[in-house]
Amino acid sequence: MRCPFCQSDDTKVLDSRQIEEGTAIRRRRECDVCTKRFTTYERYEDFQLIVVKKDGRREPFSRHKLLSGLNKACEKRPVSTEQLETMVTDIEREMRDINDREVPSELIGEAVMKKLFAADEIAYIRFASVYRQFKDIQKFMEELNGLVKRRK
């Protein structure tokens, strides 16, 4: 593995551990030349999941994009990075369990909403406001009232 700092090929693995319920391996590495440390991840390669957007466009499923959206919704909220990673893994697994290479973006969005609702209500509302594209305060209030009803 090439060092991202000095580009040397001389690196060693310091620690390896399974993550994402055994579907990936996290490796802590150190460069023999510059002695800086970095982390790599190893996953098995599965079929490419394609997301079908609302406008009909298709794009490859991106764990990074999903995690980025979750991070924005959970910014300054008491939701750990580990919880977010678990959400992404669970959502990806749910989408793959559908047994179809193409998944509508709405399915992913609803899965995210379900996970965020369980994790943090403020993050849920943040995500919902972007995902559902509220056009006015009335639609936003309907979502909040639905949240209050589900809470009881």
TrEMBL record:
Cofactor binding mode and count: Binds 1 zinc ion.
Keywords (A to Z) from UniProt: ATP-binding, DNA-binding, Metal-binding, Nucleotide-binding, Repressor, Transcription, Transcription regulation, Zinc, Zinc-finger
InterPro entries with a match to the protein in the record: ATP-cone_dom (IPR005144), NrdR-like_N (IPR055173), RNR_NrdR-like (IPR003796)
Cofactor(s) it depends on: Zn(2+)
Pfam families on file: ATP-cone, Zn_ribbon_NrdR
unnamed zinc finger segments: 3-34
Domain ATP-cone: 49-139
Known role: Negatively regulates transcription of bacterial ribonucleotide reductase nrd genes and operons by binding to NrdR-boxes.
Family: Belongs to the NrdR family.
Classification via HAMAP family: NrdR
Official protein name in the record: Transcriptional repressor NrdR
Gene: nrdR
